[in-house]
Amino acid sequence: MSETRSDWSKLCPDLLRSIFGRLIISKDFYRSRTVCSDWYSVSTTCVPTAYPWRILLDEDSTLLFDPGEDNIYEIGHPELDLLKTHVMASCSNWLLVGRAGLNLYLQNVFTRERINLPECLRLAIENSSSCLWINERTRDYVVACSSKQGCLFSCKKGDVTWLCHERIECAYVTYKDGKLYVYTFDRCIEILDLSGDLLVQGNPYRNHPFHIDDSHPKSVVITSSGELLIVVTFKGVNNRYTNIIRCSIL
User: Is 199 helix (H, G, I), strand (E, B) or coil?
Assistant: First the structure.
């Protein structure tokens, strides 16, 4: 009697949604959606747990602290020495990883998938302002990093070299919808359209410096509605707090 083999990729969408709904552990949800394109498509109609995880790098593994379940999960990376590795940025399940003497690469913390980036000797691994955006389905990505001198570099999927944006001195950078938003050393915001390496004309933030104390770490953030924020972190003797500044020029 011959055995009937089931094709897991052909499960009906309602059944798949039921499966995803029972995956209460986030890492199982994200791993399951990588089974095939049909599973990924159905997973986009489900809502996973929407809170950030804390990621700790051990010698040869990644420790993921899930605050919703108050639990720590360990994912081994025996091929890497993570204590010598710098995580420069993150997006969804992906990390932008750098290590002295080696090229930058993207690493999926759940599936261990790795995407190597072009070589660029001028990039700063430590204390670099960096940002990452990646589409999990198509693997399209955009990466931007600064050099020690503040020169801004970017690359996207398909590029064989990094693009140097010499006109901008970058202190902090973020990305949204095809544009880089750069907080410059003169405390202004420049907007760079990556489709043509052009500074956006009519940028309302240009020539409007934001007078913020340079002694504190900062990051530039764009909300889902497109509002631009500067996040400043203050460190006290026994605590740390954050000040969020809305970039309004009115």
Answer: strand
